[in-house]
Amino acid sequence: MINRREYLKLSLGAGIALALDPRMALGKEAPTPLITRAIPSSGELLPAVGLGSSATFSRLAGSDDTAALRAVLKAMHDHGGTVFDTAPAYGASEAVAGSLARELGLTEKLFWATKLNVVPRGGESADEAAARAQIETSFERIGKRPLDLIQVHNMGDVPTQLGVLKELKAENRIRYVGVTTTIPNQYEQLEQLLKAERLDFIGIDYAIDNRVMEERVFPLARERGVGVLVYAPFGRTRLWERVRGQQLPEWAAEFGAATWGQFFLKFVISHPAVTVATPATSQARHMIDNLGAARGALPDEAMRKRMIAHVEAI
Predict the structure, then answer these.
(1) Please, what is the Cα angle at 214 between 212 and 219, to 5 degrees?
(2) Nearest CA-CA partner of 70 in 37, 102, 117, 35
(3) Are 18 and 27 in contact (CB under 8 A)?
(4) Mean predicted confidence (pLDDT) in 53-58
(5) Torsion-angle region of 123 (φ positive above 0: left; ψ -120 to 50: alpha; else: beta)
């Protein structure tokens, strides 16, 4: 079983299609299609793995050299991905991605998910005028009309800001609305909101070693017909540190995982509540590797338990 670095070397250039789908060797012209998931509120299908723009993507977006990010966006599109998650809070990510997408002719081809949060420090109420101004800035940066999805970032003054988003959805300026949080002390508030509001999406953190969402949030999302965008499916860098120097188990091939990245992502998207996982990256080869997790088989419940036990034993 090859490790992530070896796999990515094999995946460069002409060898990448074969690495993603060995059946290419038999004369197939395209790799296996990406696994898709339906948005519960509409039935629209999205590829189950997309791209986030925090972390390394955000750091490069703030530099003078964005060529690598251009390559990441192109790689995502060329290999079947569409979902791009960003936020005004992610530095220059939203603006740079919007500009690069225009250069590549991808503005209308991507599913854009951005966020809204203008709550001042100290927890005061959001300024509605400032919230509307931030949304207009996002419209200008991204350039797609209507914009696919805007979510209230980290549960910031939900009554005010979700109210604005719902109004814009009614005006057909936004297609979907939702809320996000990766803050544990907000999970209970998220549960209450899921019960009280009609949302299209939530965005939350979930990983093989961070499964608290399985207990109450995921069942509620399924019951209420709400899509789930997963952030930090690698635990940011936590899981990479955990498996450093560890070989991928040979039995990972039973569900088509060729790298640790695919192992972790296949676990995440195999949960029936998950719509799309959006790991951030600033490298095209990692983008392609991540999309490989949305091809072929996914682990069943018995295999998911085996995967958890293996990671916990490391």
Answers:
(1) 135
(2) 102
(3) no
(4) 91
(5) left
Q: Is the pLDDT of residue 120 over 70?
A: no
Residue 65 main-chain phi, psi, to 5 deg: -115, 105
pLDDT of residue 23: 37
294-303 mean pLDDT: 98
Q: Mention the CATH class of domain 4-11+34-313.
A: alpha beta
Domain spans of the chain?
4-11+34-313
pLDDT at 121: 64
Q: How many C-beta atoms surround the C-beta of residue 200 within 10 A?
A: 22
Other C-beta atoms lying within 10 Å of the C-beta of residue 238? 12
pLDDT digits (tens, 9 = 90+) for 103-112: 999 999 999 9
Distance CA 221, CA 199 (A): 9
Whether the Cβ atoms of residue 298 and residue 272 lie closer than 8 Å to each other = no
Rounded CA-CA distance 169/299 in Å is 36
User: Residue 203 in 3-state DSSP?
Assistant: strand
Q: Please state the rounded mean pLDDT for residues 177-188.
A: 96
Q: Which residues contact 22 (CB under 8 A, 6 or more apart)?
A: none
**pTM assigned to the model:** 0.90
Of 111, 271, 149, 301, give the one whose Cα is nearest residue 206: 271
C-alpha closest to that of 280 among 293, 290, 272, 292: 290
Rounded to whole angstroms, how far apart are CA atoms 25 and 10?
Answer: 14
**Cα(72)–Cα(287) distance, rounded to whole angstroms?**
6
Query: Which strand (E) or helix (H) includes residue 38?
Result: strand 36-38
* Beta strand residue intervals within 106-200, DSSP E: 111-116, 147-152, 174-181
Tens digits of per-residue pLDDT, 233-267?
999 999 999 999 999 999 999 999 999 999 999 99
Cis previous bond, 146, omega within 30: yes
Contacts of 279 (CB under 8 A, 6+ apart): 49, 51, 52, 232, 233, 234, 261, 265, 290
